[in-house]
Design brief:
- The structure holds two protein chains of two kinds.
- Chain A is mainly α.
- Chain A folds into three domains: about 35 residues, no CATH class; about 35 residues; about 220 residues, Orthogonal Bundle (MetI-like fold).
- Helix content of chain A is about 75%, strand content about 0%.
- In chain A, helix 5 packs across helix 13, helix 6 crosses helix 13 and helix 11 packs antiparallel against helix 13.
- The two termini of chain A are about 20 Å apart.
- Chain B has two domains: about 160 residues, P-loop containing nucleotide triphosphate hydrolases (Rossmann fold), CATH 3.40.50; about 70 residues, no CATH class.
- In chain B, the strands form two sheets. Chain B has a six-stranded mixed β-sheet, sandwiched between helices. In chain B, strands 1-5-2-3 form a four-stranded mixed β-sheet, covered by helices on one side.
- Chain B is globular and about 50 Å long.
- The chains are: A mainly alpha, B alpha/beta.
- The interface between A and B is large, with 34 and 37 residues.
């Protein structure tokens, strides 16, 4: 109830002369909003950070519990305690440098794959938005690519292209291009009909329409697609590397190697945590990029109240 | 289909036996003939779905009529939509500059035209705001400013103030009339509100239910500029009553 009232105060001037010029400036942001936001800022940060930290702490507790209590002495090596994982993976330089090199390789593959997907995906989406024929031809194909499990494609890729970096990049492109293309396409056609009428009335051409109306309108959905694709590109780089198992050693190959040697199981956990951290970093970076580019005019989910 | 209006005649827009049947067989308007002269403000009222908006689309060229013809200068038509239809990614000045931009007017001149229009609608000080931080009435004024930048000789209004509250609507009516007098365009206005129609217009045209035909053409003799208090004038009430009677007759 109180949310509704607060919202209506945002939308309509309350009191005063609704036609007034500069003097109605204050009406756009009700004076009650700003101080309240300032006062609760610290509280809100705590409210956002504490619950996940507590939950993560609980999970680490479960992890300790699993090692010390749950597993029998003979099987304790399967789940090494977090302390040992950290010590082996991040405090022994030899191991750490191996994992970091793997990280660099994986990041490189993911970045190349994602860049290709972005360029290609946006281009395809633009073509699809311009021609019904192209849309009808391309769309079912994209669905087929998306619906085929990537693990079913990797053997074919390995046979045809070998197991070098190109193949890993291709795996990345195949799993990231769908969300980018589809989101961009939906975004491009999401512009209000009236804006299209306006361009028609003033004799704007196809390119003008695309540049001034369709492309900016597509940005919020394009960014939504980018965030999904960015996370997938990390998965693609790791899955490709894990499956192909040759060439430049990335996180995928490390995980495979560590999983085969009992002594290196703590490193498997350590590598997995690095992969998780990479995924989170990528997701957050694209969220920040989105806020920087369209945050001024578009309320994104992650933005919270303003 | 479209002839360019001879400025000497003093007609800004003329419908001649215009009819519109959509591909699905719906006959929206039939045999509509009327003209809007320079300096005239004509409002069309009628029941929902009588093809009022279709008439504006035909006048602007967004729709081609299936019968009859329209005379209008299509180079600089002002079209105010039902919704503000602003670009959420542009600021107020960015939105207002759009049309000049589409016509390839250089940046400096564009700025000037936009600033003038922003001042006209009373949005000075809000140039750098994005639409999301404006109220409904302000968004509509921004939309109005955008239309005014090119100083169109004819303005088409498609029920533009239907979504704002009553007080804001009355203010917008008065303000629009002020701009009408200042700019000297011909106005064709669509509304559901009889009061709005009579207050704004020099003529009120009543249309029948679908297919829309012109059933009455009322002159509103009050001179411009009009005072807000005109709404409580006895003669004002009498004209509103006449139009209301016409509307009841066609509203089956």
């Amino acid at each position: 109830m109180s949310r509704v009232i607060e919202h209506s105060e945002h939308s309509y001037p309350v009191g005063g002369d609704p036609l007034g010029g500069a003097d109605s400036l204050a009406l756009i942001e009700p004076p009650t909003v700003r101080p309240a936001a300032q006062r609760s800022r610290g509280v809100r940060v705590v409210a956002a950070v504490v619950p996940p930290l507590v939950l993560a702490g609980c999970l680490v507790g479960v992890w300790f519990f699993a090692h010390h209590v749950w597993l029998s002495a003979r099987r304790k090596f399967l789940i090494p305690p977090p302390t040992k994982v950290v010590r082996e993976s991040y405090l022994k330089w030899d191991n750490t440098s191996t994992i970091l090199e793997g990280l660099v390789s994986t990041v490189r593959v993911a970045a190349i794959g994602l860049s290709i997907s972005i360029a290609l995906g946006i281009a395809i989406a633009v073509l699809m938005s311009q021609s019904k024929l192209i849309e009808r031809a391309v769309f079912p194909l994209m669905v087929v690519v998306q619906a085929t499990p990537i693990l079913a494609l990797t053997p074919i890729i390995a046979i045809v292209l070998g197991t070098n970096q190109t193949s890993r990049v291709l795996v990345c492109v195949l799993i990231t291009i769908f969300p980018i293309t589809l989101n961009t396409l939906y975004g491009l056609v999401s512009a209000e009909g009236g804006l299209h009428d306006l361009v028609t009335l003033h004799h704007g051409g196809r390119l003008t329409r695309l540049r001034k109306v369709m492309f900016p309108a597509a940005l919020p959905l394009l960014f939504a697609g980018l965030r999904i694709a960015a996370g997938l590109s990390v998965i693609g780089a790791i899955v490709g590397d894990f499956f192909f198992g040759r060439g430049d050693v990335g996180l995928g190959q490390l995980m495979k190697r560590y999983s085969l040697n009992t002594n290196e199981i703590p490193l498997l956990y350590g590598t997995t945590l690095v992969a998780a951290a990479l995924g989170v970093t990528v997701f957050l970076s694209f969220g920040a990029l989105q806020n920087a580019v369209i945050g001024k005019w578009h309320d994104s989910r992650s933005g919270g109240g303003h | 289909m479209t002839d360019v209006v001879d400025p000497a005649v003093g007609t800004a827009l003329a419908f001649d036996q215009v009819g519109m049947t959509f591909p699905d067989g719906t006959e929206a308007v039939a045999e509509v003939s009327f003209a809007v002269g320079r300096g005239e403000f004509v409002t069309v009222v009628g029941p929902s779905g009588c093809g009022k908006s279709t008439l504006l689309k035909i006048a602007s060229g967004l729709l081609e009529p299936t019968r009859g013809s329209v005379s209008i200068d299509r180079e600089r038509i002002g079209y105010v939509f039902q919704d503000p239809t602003l670009m959420p990614w542009r600021t107020v000045s960015g939105n207002v500059e759009l049309l000049a931009e589409l016509h390839g007017i250089p940046r400096a001149e564009r700025r000037e035209l936009a600033q003038r229009a922003i001042d006209l609608v009373g949005l000075r000080g809000f140039e750098r705001h994005h639409p999301k931080s404006l109220s409904g009435g302000m968004r509509m004024r921004c939309s109005l400013a955008r239309t005014l930048t090119l100083r169109p000789p004819i303005m088409l209004f498609d029920e533009p103030f239907g979504a704002v509250d009553e007080i804001t609507r009355e203010h917008l009516n008065e303000e629009t009339l002020q701009i009408f007098l200042q700019e000297g365009f011909a106005g064709l206005f669509i509304t559901h509100s009889i009061f709005e129609a009579v207050f704004m217009s020099s003529r009120v045209i009543v249309m029948s239910a679908r297919p829309g035909r012109v059933v009455a053409d009322h002159a509103v003799p009050f001179p411009y500029p009009r005072e807000p208090d005109l709404r409580f004038d006895a003669e004002f009430a009498r004209i509103c009553g006449e139009i209301s009677t016409d509307l009841r007759a066609v509203h089956r």
